[in-house]
Design a protein that fits this description.
The protein has about 220 residues and is mainly α. It has 9 helices and 2 strands, in the order αααααααααββ. A hairpin with a 4-residue loop joins β1 and β2. The longest helix is centred in the last third of the chain and has 20 residues. It starts with 9 loop residues before the first helix and ends in an 11-residue tail after the last strand. The relative contact order is 0.07.
């Protein structure tokens, strides 16, 4: 005889979802609604989770931003877009990005705050992204600019980084090639016993020995 499974109430379903990973309020609301829970129950569940300290968009936003930056350097625009895509309130997102600016300032030892130069920490991250990109391919200002734009960096920061990378590329191309550090092979005198005459082909070098009569041993 088949047994029907007791439906899970909205609160315990929410706990199940939160146990898998942290969720923003909007994410949790959407998932509960998609599973058939009615709006009054969903809102009651969210309110209960708030009261119990199990649903904290501010803390989640800060953690989410840090996790994104651990994977790759991103600009504020991209970070803000990722938060918005998950339904995070604009005020909460701005607060998380503001906390990121303070972290950047603390890491650099600059008490004047990065906001004074207008990049809010984006400059350092854009330089990291550009250095990583140019290690894997030949420098192209247009291509690198598009790459940095996709990562969410602003136009002023992108232009600064492109100027720096162009100067580096120019210096690198104008540097003389390093001289061959190999010592030249000693020249052997004709007719010397056991002398080695070096013969170099188009791609490789090889040696043949000749004796006192000047003839190569393998020609005898």
């Amino acid at each position: 005889m088949a047994h029907s499974r007791t439906p899970v109430d909205g609160y315990h379903k929410a706990l199940e979802l939160l146990g898998a990973r942290p969720h923003f309020r909007a994410e949790l609301r959407a998932k509960l609604a998609a599973r058939g829970y009615l709006e009054p129950e969903v809102e009651a569940v969210l309110g209960r989770l708030d009261a119990e300290g199990l649903l904290d968009d501010r803390a989640n936003a800060r953690s989410f931003v840090r996790s994104l930056l651990e994977r790759r350097p991103l600009g504020r625009r991209r970070l803000a877009a990722e938060l918005a895509r998950r339904g995070v309130d604009e005020e909460v997102a701005a607060e998380a990005l503001g906390a990121l600016d303070l972290d950047d300032s603390s890491d650099s030892g600059d008490s004047s705050h990065h906001g004074d130069n207008g990049d809010n920490g984006d400059g350092a991250r854009a330089r990291l992204a550009a250095a990583s990109w140019t290690r894997r391919r030949q420098f192209s200002a247009a291509a690198l600019g598009r790459h940095l734009e996709r990562l969410g960096f602003g136009q002023r920061v992108i232009l600064e980084v492109l100027e720096e990378r162009a100067a580096i590329a120019e210096r690198t191309s104008s540097e003389p090639a390093p001289e061959d550090s190999l010592e030249p092979l000693p020249r052997s005198e004709p007719g010397e016993s056991g002398a080695v005459a070096s013969v170099t082909g188009p791609a490789v070098g090889f040696s043949r020995s000749r004796g006192r009569d000047g003839r190569y041993e393998d020609d005898r």
